[in-house]
Recover the amino acids of this structure.
């Protein structure tokens, strides 16, 4: 049988995705049942245990397929990027209201009512999906009223069918976001998570990890000149070109999302990542 990437294929010796029948060996095959993320951020872990490593994250409103559930954990595959792993079962709901808007600010509050002085009842990340049932205006501030209760600043939301015109500008808005291995949100993000979330807000679905992203984009010769939006890949790392000379990236050196000259980044990361492996143009 073919050995498949465990990050993108739900296959264990005891259980596998029905769609993999004939490609992998498993004691049992099942079709995943649909569910939706019902918390602001849900961690995808390598095993069903709180101490297991963080692989990736899902955001409020994301869809998943659930293949197995037990002891408070669900084995899932993300509908958005195909990532497979374990999440807390209580982070999922069988269904939810249809997402009408996505958070377009790095982070935004949910208030108990349409008043910025009202108690905060939640905090959402860039990319979280919400259902808006109406709008209200109070003292010059426009609020989006959420299905099920609560209100958000309307200017912090973007209709689900609309997208940011420049993914690099989205990445720039995340400058100073803390670095988090496996993070994909405005609360904490890693290098490939920065690329994926920024492009997602610009309407482009891209793979999750650096090796997947490097294979997804066309190579470009840096000698011909790099430009805004190009990607620089190292083994296990990626940065976004802001212009011909400067990059922005979530990195373990500063433990933040920061900008710096590409030449400085290449020199500094050489002992850890070696030289860049390729330059790509989305």
């Amino acid at each position: 049988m073919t050995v498949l990437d465990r990050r993108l294929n739900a296959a264990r010796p005891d259980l596998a995705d029905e769609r993999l029948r004939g490609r992998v060996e498993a004691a049992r095959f099942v079709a995943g049942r649909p569910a939706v993320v019902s918390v602001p951020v849900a961690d995808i872990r390598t095993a069903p245990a709180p101490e297991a490593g963080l692989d990736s994250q899902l955001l409020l409103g994301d869809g998943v397929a659930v293949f197995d559930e037990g002891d408070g954990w669900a084995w899932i595959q993300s509908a958005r990027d195909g990532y497979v792993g374990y999440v807390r079962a209580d982070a999922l709901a069988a269904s939810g209201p249809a997402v009408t808007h996505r958070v377009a600010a790095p982070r935004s509050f949910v208030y108990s009512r349409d008043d910025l002085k009202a108690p905060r009842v939640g905090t959402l990340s860039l990319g979280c999906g919400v259902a808006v049932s109406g709008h209200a205006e109070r003292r010059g501030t426009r609020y989006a009223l959420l299905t099920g209760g609560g209100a958000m600043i309307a200017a912090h939301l973007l209709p689900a069918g609309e997208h940011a015109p420049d993914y690099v500008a989205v990445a720039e808005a995340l400058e100073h976001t803390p670095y988090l291995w496996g993070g994909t949100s405005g609360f904490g993000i890693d290098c490939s998570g920065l690329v994926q979330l920024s492009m997602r807000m610009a309407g482009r679905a891209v793979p999750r990890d650096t090796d997947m992203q490097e294979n997804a984009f066309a190579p470009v010769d840096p000698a011909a000149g790099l430009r805004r939006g190009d990607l620089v890949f190292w083994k296990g790392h990626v940065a976004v070109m802001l212009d011909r000379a400067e990059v922005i990236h979530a990195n373990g050196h500063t433990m933040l999302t920061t900008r710096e000259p590409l030449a400085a980044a290449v020199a500094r990361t050489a002992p850890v990542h070696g030289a860049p492996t390729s330059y790509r143009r989305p």
About this structure: Residues 107 and 125 are 5 Å apart (CA to CA). The longest helix spans residues 262-273.
